[in-house]
Amino acid sequence: MNLPELKGTEKQISWANTIRNELTSKIPTPETIAENLVKNVKPEQKEAGKVISDEYAVRYAKVFSEDNAGEWINKRTSLTYASVLRYLTSQTSQPEV
Question: Could you tell me if 43 and 61 are in contact, meaning their C-beta atoms sit under 8 angstroms apart?
Answer without folding.
Answer: no
